[in-house]
TrEMBL record:
Pathway it works in: Cell wall biogenesis; peptidoglycan recycling; Amino-sugar metabolism; 1,6-anhydro-N-acetylmuramate degradation
Reaction catalysed by this enzyme: 1,6-anhydro-N-acetyl-beta-muramate + ATP + H2O = N-acetyl-D-muramate 6-phosphate + ADP + H(+)
Entry keyword Cytoplasm: no
UniProt GO MF annotations: ATP binding; kinase activity; phosphotransferase activity, alcohol group as acceptor
Pfam families: AnmK
Coiled coil, from the record: none
Keyword Repressor: no
Organism in which the protein naturally occurs: Hydrogenovibrio crunogenus
PANTHER family referenced in this protein's UniProt entry, alphabetically: ANHYDRO-N-ACETYLMURAMIC ACID KINASE
Family in the record: Belongs to the anhydro-N-acetylmuramic acid kinase family.
Function as written in the Swiss-Prot or TrEMBL entry: Catalyzes the specific phosphorylation of 1,6-anhydro-N-acetylmuramic acid (anhMurNAc) with the simultaneous cleavage of the 1,6-anhydro ring, generating MurNAc-6-P. Is required for the utilization of anhMurNAc either imported from the medium or derived from its own cell wall murein, and thus plays a role in cell wall recycling.
Protein name: Anhydro-N-acetylmuramic acid kinase
Keywords: ATP-binding, Carbohydrate metabolism, Kinase, Nucleotide-binding, Transferase
Length: 354
């Protein structure tokens, strides 16, 4: 899995037996600087010539292939011991209004180079059934945490999404920015790839006038089901707001972006059918102490990471891809009707053989 944060390829080795999941190994393999830059530019300006698209398809596929091979080497497994790879690919454009969603990193290369059956292209079947195609994570959160009722799970990657687990059904939707805007701003103004532990944001103050304007983004007022990405929430989106507030320091801007993530998550939680009794956080945002502290300050129920429930916060989305592959190989539909708005549940993905 590589998400909207573009940190690199998250690779998880998962043992699935008797419908139970066990994480055997997990590692993140960063993209090269040049590949990450190209993918970031494509998020902000989604125009590309076909030759460059083909080149990126191949390069991302090789990054996924290398991640697979290195994880197996580090964990002392061989390709012969692996049933399948589930590959989400790298999303470069998500347009449910079309409807179409494009992930690159062609699975044919992954299957042939690793000699392992590869399952991929998970979003399009849901879109063909009139769904948004994303987020897929809530269905997996139901699998992992479904025995914990009245709980909300928030994945804070480049974009944040909420899963609500209750006794009737699982709901899920994207709330808006997660770490993505903060990461881009750190690269441009602090010479670092992200705000480690939220320490930089802690040095600034939230600018309430700027935050109020950011919160006027129409997406935040849309009802679920809804999904978004860095094709909307990027520094090009942010730039006009900053031009209207030229005297705000970079520390205060970063602190305000941190608060924007908090506010939009809380706003999403307030639209749920009933208040959750607990909030579990996964993804990179689980490491942002400022973000976690601010969330807890606004919520009357406990805010923890998924580690308190025995699941590594960074590994969940990569684990999801293994689970999706397993579900596809048994032709099991994924319950997404209440998450993506699809007219029916779908068997997700296609299979490429070695």
């Amino acid at each position: 899995m590589s998400g909207t944060s573009l940190d690199g390829v998250d690779a998880a080795l998962v043992n699935i037996q008797n419908d139970q999941l066990e994480l055997k190994a997990f590692q993140t393999f960063p993209y090269t600087h040049s590949l990450k830059k190209q993918l970031q530019q494509l998020n902000q300006t989604p125009h590309i010539d076909l030759k460059t698209l083909c080149d990126l398809e191949y390069r991302v596929a090789m990054a996924f292939t290398n991640a697979t091979q290195l994880l197996l080497k580090h964990s002392d497994y061989t390709s012969e011991e692996i049933t399948a790879i589930g590959s989400h690919g790298q999303t470069i454009y998500h347009a449910p209004d079309v409807p179409m969603s494009l992930q690159i990193g062609h699975p044919a290369f992954i299957a042939k180079k690793t000699a392992i059956t590869t399952v991929a292209d998970f979003r399009i079947d849901d879109m063909a059934n009139n769904g948004q195609g994303a987020p897929l994570a809530p269905a997996f959160h139901q699998k992992l945490f479904g025995n914990i009722v009245n709980t909300a799970v928030v994945n804070i990657g480049g974009i944040s999404n909420i899963t609500f687990l209750d006794r009737q059904k699982t709901l899920g939707f994207d709330t808006g920015p997660g770490n993505g805007l903060m990461d881009e701003f750190c690269e441009q103004h602090f010479n670092c790839t992200y705000d480690e532990n939220g320490e930089l944001a802690q040095t600034g103050q939230v600018n309430m006038a700027l935050l109020s304007e950011l919160m006027q983004e129409p997406y935040f007022g849309l009802p679920a089901p809804k999904t978004t990405g860095k094709d909307l929430f990027n520094c090009d989106w942010l730039s006009p707001f900053l031009k209207r507030h030229p005297n705000v320091s970079k520390e205060d801007i970063l602190s305000t972006l941190n608060q924007l993530t908090v506010e939009t998550i809380v706003q999403g939680l307030n639209t749920l059918p009933s208040p959750p009794e607990r909030l579990l956080i996964c993804g990179g945002g689980a490491e942002n102490n400022t973000l976690m502290t601010r969330l807890q300050a606004q919520l009357p129920y406990p805010v923890d990471t998924t580690k308190t429930s025995g699941v590594e916060p960074h590994a969940i989305e990569a684990m999801m891809c293994a689970w999706l592959a397993d579900q596809r190989l048994t032709n099991t539909p994924i319950a997404l009707e209440h998450i993506t708005g699809a007219t029916k549940d779908s068997v997700l993905g296609a299979v490429w053989h070695p």
